[in-house]
Amino acid sequence: MFDKHKGNLDGAAPQDDSKRILRQPSIKDIARLARVSHPTVSRALQNSPLVNAKTAERIRKIAKESGYRASAVARGLVTRRTRTIGLVVTTVSDPFTSEVVTGIEQTANDHGYCVFLADSNADPDREKKIVQSFAEQRVDGIIVTSSRVGALYLPLLSEMMVPIVLVNDQHPGAFVHSVMICNREGTRAVAEHLVGLGHRRIAYIGDQFGYQSDTERFAGYREALDAEKIPVHPELVVRGNGKPEAAMRAMDQLLALSDPPTAVCCYNDMTALGAMRSIRIHGLRIPEDISIAGFDDLFVASYTDPPLTTVRQPMRRMGQLATENLIKLMSGQKSVVKIKIKAELIVRESTAMARKSKHQIAKR
């Protein structure tokens, strides 16, 4: 530790500890010990070729022995880089988001970046304000997961000049760098799987907010049914909010039909959890009476009873790709505008051959 009063490195303990003030040594302190100017110290610590090699080695040795650490703030003023990334999430409690965040943080740390996290609570106005705040704090780049604003960032970009990458953008525009799952292909694979099991009355529980992910997933569901000339009955399409409670109400509505569905495609795994709960409350079995499929492959999907058929999103990988793409943007390298991740159908025990009856499910 550097002794301010003695002007040297720690040696023998001073007789009066009350007069000893300890602090982190500065570049000027190192310069005084090395008997050079502080610009020379600065250059030596940045491995500048303008400093004699022997002198630079001596300066670095003194800096190390004195416990000197470069100030990130001071370095940022010189380089105009803060080595920080702003991360906006819809809610930290969402299992999907937490996995994406893990991928982002791991990749950012591997590249020497610190991540600042903010929760928008799925509020578009709050999300926009957070992004503006991050820009004002001079973060080097911003990642937004499941953005509710999307293309509205376009005018912001021209003002802020801060690179932004979106993960699962819910309102995609022509501009943005983004990482997204192939939603349409994913739900189409689910619906095709159910049709292959003999199901003809296949319901869809979607999301009521009209997000892009729901639009694309519903389109995949329709494509699979249209290909087999199976009609999409309006009463079989209901909306929740992506959470179990609303999904229970949606499933109750489907089960109240005179001819209920034999299978259900759910917007996400959290929706599937609610639907499964409703089915059991009505005394029905999964998959004997009704087959259920989700989307995301959250960690709970393989632990439900029965384990849930779903579409796997490589959540950590998506976070990693978003961060790698952002780092390329921040360094001026060529980057991919839109990264599409292939969807993978994971078949488990919650789906099975359609029951023989083509009419109303008998309540047990």
Provide the fold topology:
Blueprint: E1 2-3, E2 8-9, E3 22-23, H1 27-34, H2 38-45, H3 53-65, H4 72-79, E4 84-89, H5 95-110, E5 114-119, H6 124-136, E6 141-145, H7 153-160, E7 164-167, E8 177-181, H8 183-196, E9 202-207, H9 212-227, E10 237-240, H10 244-255, E11 263-266, H11 269-281, E12 291-293, E13 310-312, H12 315-330, E14 338-341, E15 344-346
Parallel strand pairs: 4-5, 4-6, 6-7, 7-8, 8-14, 9-10, 9-11, 11-12
Antiparallel strand pairs: 1-2, 1-3, 13-15
Helix pairs in contact: 1-2, 1-3, 2-3, 5-12, 8-9, 10-11
Question: What would you say this structure looks like, in words?
Answer:
- By secondary structure, the protein is of the alpha/beta class.
- It has three domains: 2-70, lambda repressor-like DNA-binding domains (434 Repressor (Amino-terminal Domain), Orthogonal Bundle), CATH 1.10.260.40; 81-175 and 314-342, Response regulator (Rossmann fold); 183-309, Rossmann fold.
- Helix content is 40%, strand content 16%.
- The protein has twelve helices and 15 strands.
- It has helices spanning 27-34, 38-45, 53-65, 72-79, 95-110, 124-136, 153-160, 183-196, 212-227, 244-255, 269-281, 315-330, and strands spanning 2-3, 8-9, 22-23, 84-89, 114-119, 141-145, 164-167, 177-181, 202-207, 237-240, 263-266, 291-293, 310-312, 338-341, 344-346.
- Strands 5-4-6-7-8-14 form a six-stranded parallel β-sheet, with helices on both faces. It has a four-stranded parallel β-sheet with strand order 10-9-11-12, with helices on both faces. The chain has a three-stranded antiparallel β-sheet with strand order 2-1-3, with no helix packed on it.
- Helix 11 (269-281) links the parallel strand 11 and strand 12 (291-293).
- Helix 8 packs parallel to helix 9 (212-227).
- The N and C termini lie far apart (77 Å).
- The model is unreliable at 4-21 and 357-364 (pLDDT under 50).
